[in-house]
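quick q for whoever's on today - can somebody do inverse folding on this one?? i tried earlier but teh output was garbage lol. tokens:
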């Protein structure tokens, strides 16, 4: 494995963070919630702005919850947001999922949402997650499956958006369709039992369409998605602008419907 960090397709443009701050435990960790109880210790890997992390902390209080992100700016944003809450059992720090600086058997739950799809070696990351989980503890992962995404009305430019996303991730040696591979990846790690499920995000109301379509229009033009597409010479700026306009057209259509499927795994550590 290279010492260089894995390339992050989305980056940290404001349009990306708008999406991440919408997430909470209910809409992003439904598979994990039945397994949580007060007093549990939790590590949330790839925590971003920390909205899921803080929500998990509320559910396991007084158990300690640590949010970990590779990017210091995300940790700073999460810390700032935490100050505006009444949550006292949560903290954030930077770290590397491939080399976690926690002792073996440290956490009851090790959680990662939309993380493995961005890693060049997801099995190595899962092995490290298993190392820091206590025997009998839980690894909980959830990732989108881009090839499974579906929408209406059809639009060739949205088809091109998805094709381009897959081309970028192939160039970056990461897996856009990680959701369908989670079960196979986790089963390569030393765990006792594995349960795989799935769930979706659905954007089909005027407000959700405006939010989802608007943020993707911005991401196509201004986030690292655009930077990667251009640097890999997969398209030009005019095509990105056309795709962004297609997202806005979709958002304004009264029949607009978009589904994001996710694979989910709960694994009990040996």
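ok took a stab at it. sequence:
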């Amino acid at each position: 494995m290279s010492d260089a960090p894995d390339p992050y397709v989305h980056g940290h443009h404001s349009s990306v963070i708008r999406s991440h701050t919408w997430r909470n435990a209910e809409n992003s960790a439904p598979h994990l919630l039945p397994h949580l109880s007060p007093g549990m210790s939790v590590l949330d890997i790839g925590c971003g702005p920390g909205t899921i992390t803080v929500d998990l902390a509320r559910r396991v209080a007084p158990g300690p919850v640590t949010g970990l992100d590779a990017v210091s700016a995300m940790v700073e944003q999460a810390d700032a947001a935490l100050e505006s809450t009444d949550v006292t059992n949560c903290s954030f720090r930077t770290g590397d999922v491939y080399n976690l600086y926690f002792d073996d058997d440290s956490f009851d739950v090790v959680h990662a949402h939309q993380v493995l799809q961005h890693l060049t070696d997801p099995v190595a990351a899962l092995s490290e997650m298993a190392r820091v989980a206590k025997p009998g503890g839980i690894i909980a992962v959830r990732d989108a499956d881009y090839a499974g995404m579906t929408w209406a009305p059809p639009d060739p430019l949205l088809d091109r958006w998805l094709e381009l996303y897959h081309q970028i991730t192939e160039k970056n040696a990461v897996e856009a369709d990680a959701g369908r591979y989670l079960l196979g990846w986790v089963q390569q790690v030393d765990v006792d039992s594995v349960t795989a499920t799935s769930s979706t995000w659905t954007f089909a109301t005027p407000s959700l369409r405006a939010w989802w379509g608007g943020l993707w229009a911005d991401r196509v033009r201004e986030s690292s998605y655009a930077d990667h597409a251009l640097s890999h010479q997969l398209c030009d700026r005019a095509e990105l602008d056309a795709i962004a306009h297609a997202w806005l057209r979709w958002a304004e259509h009264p029949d607009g419907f978009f589904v994001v499927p996710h694979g989910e795994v709960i694994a009990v550590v040996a």
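fwiw The two ends are 26 Å apart (CA to CA). also Residues 111 and 140 are 5 Å apart (CA to CA). so keep that in mind when u check it
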